[in-house]
């Protein structure tokens, strides 16, 4: 449970708000009913349901997007209803809602909800004792919302930047090994469910150390970038390339296996040989290929591709080798 809360920021906010909403509003609901204010008590109960149901939904389904939106909406307009029904003591409830909305939904949506809630409260007018109070409320609500917006916007762009840094290889711009682990697990689970074929290619540049040693690391880096560019140009948009480490890449190819896969990879091997170059000539790469088998774990799948790559390297490089006893690709040199 703690693990989920620690790893899912929006879920943790939903749970925090839902729980504090339930704890904070319940005494007021009881108070309103005991004072005979049935309408305000009913509104409190509706808000209680409005925050606890999305919280339960988010917890059970993991869908924090929809629950966050519902919660932001209900808490803000619920606060408007409370303010309108009980007068200025209810006004204060809108302030936490003006801020917390930014934790639940995108900054633009939170801002739109805030503006609508404040305007609605002003139009209904019943919460205010005087015009002066109403305009003071409007001005302070705008200041609170504007500050929260700037903070949320900045926080969001920094989070996106961190996500980018954590998942993208800075040299080549493809996803790194960390995101590969997640994507492979997801793709394998989907393939297991749908029966859609899924193949994995371990692609390793041949004698890369020699290129570095002879022409320098800068040239080595350029070769890596060129290779990524060539693979990207000659594969489909739903194929995904990851940098596995060093000069080794993983290419994930959904919907391809058997003869179709052989044709594509034979072509790709030749394309790399033809287009990826260094000052001393062309670059070659070896491929180890494994198609996911029913019930197979990602680790075993990768290990089979790795074993095939090892065989490609040890049998002469510049070739495609398939796991599970399939024949090595005949070595066809480009014209
Ligand atoms: N330029 C550059 N070199 C890198 C990078 N990452 C790893 N390397 C180098 O890649 C080389 C990999 O060498 P090896 O593992 O011996 O592989 P290889 O020379 O390609 O030999 P085979 O794979 O057996 O054909 C090492 O010299 C690493 O320093 C990088 O980001 N840029």
Automatic annotation (TrEMBL):
Enzyme class at the top of the EC tree: transferase
GO molecular function, one term: diguanylate cyclase activity
InterPro entries: Diguanylate_Cyclase, GGDEF_dom, Nucleotide_cyclase, Rev_trsase/Diguanyl_cyclase
Cofactor entry: Mg(2+)
Record-annotated membrane-spanning stretches: 12-33, 39-60, 67-87, 93-122, 134-153
Domain GGDEF: 196-325
Keywords recorded for this protein, A-Z: Membrane, Transmembrane, Transmembrane helix
Catalytic activity: 2 GTP = 3',3'-c-di-GMP + 2 diphosphate
PANTHER family attached to this UniProt entry: DIGUANYLATE CYCLASE DGCM-RELATED, REGULATORY COMPONENTS OF SENSORY TRANSDUCTION SYSTEM
Protein's name according to its UniProt entry: diguanylate cyclase
